[in-house]
Amino acid sequence: MSATASLPKNLLGWSRAELEQLAVEAGQPRFRGRQTFRGIYARRVRDLGALTDLDKKFRDYLLARYTVALPRSERQFTSRDGSARYLLGLEDGKTIEAVYMPIEDRVTFCISSQVGCAVDCRFCFTALLGVKRNLTAGEMVGQVMALSEAQHVERGAHVNVVFMGMGEPLLNYGPVMEAVRILADPDGLGITLRRITISTSGIVPRIRDLACEAVRPRLAVSLNASTDEQRSALVPINRKYPISELMRACREYPLRPRERLTFEYVLLDGVNDSDQDAQRVAELMQGVRAKINLIPYNSGPGLPFRAPPIERVLSFQQVLADRRVPAFIRISRGQDVMAACGQLSLAGAPSQAAARA
Ligand code: SAH
Ligand code: SF4
Fold first, then answer.
1. Can you give the pTM of this predicted structure?
2. Is 341 a catalytic residue?
3. Domains in the chain, number
């Protein structure tokens, strides 16, 4: 079958090595692959015909067979706080979500790693979808590129990328790491590694794999409970990887100078928010250079939990502070458009969001 007869293939997500290989296969010197890589990710060229630094023959070769297509923004919901949730359409018709959050002179992109999620945490709206499929590296990098274009975020801006949208990134390990390498490559999107964070519900063997990566983003672990009984009820994966194993992997995780592991803890009223919970969390943190983000539960239709009153949240934080565990209260942004942590689900459609606003 001739390549020209079939649909053009999307180059988005191809690594530097893959593009170099492509150049070689086209009878070109290897460095043409690197130029293509730079063109797509650093220079943001969408039309392969505009890669004018390539030799014309290679350009024509690419044009005849390939394309560069970003996920399409199908809908956008802008919050009163300036953050914006995007519904992005993929090539197979599936939809994912990504969030843009401007904070002072920085921009944070919260991106998805899967369509839905299989981990099934009881307090998470994404869990209600189940998992449909993994995203490709291109679909993850493409979320950052599509939102950068939509929000006119220039290259060189202070950008954070957090894998905290839909999905469990460590259950889509290979493509997530490929995406991280393209995001962090100076010839790629050029985003500093310490500004890229993967958040996990605690897939212990993959945390250990991550510890061995040469190109390693920051790690956040969603703890969300202080005992195994509580955690297994809230985060079912805890039955497979209990707290002791999770914390052992965390203690053994190599941190760079000044780096801390982040732990996330969703506070659920009357469930995991007592001072005794906070004391147990402080004990778990012994021997780990950690900070904790306390996230009062973001509510929405279909789930039974409530956020604790603010005094409870402050008391939880104080118990941690008394034991020298730095803890920060994270009031999620974009709650009025269901863009906040755990609210990314297609069930959280705008009509419901508007009803809550
Ligand atoms: N699957 C990964 C990353 C996506 S979830 C993980 O679980 O870490 C991102 C964060 O949102 C997690 O820390 C999760 O605990 C939190 N979260 C999920 N549902 C939430 C809700 N309803 N309110 C507040 N935070 C929530
Ligand atoms: Fe999946 Fe994270 Fe939601 Fe749990 S909290 S269901 S791991 S997206």
1. 0.93
2. yes
3. 2
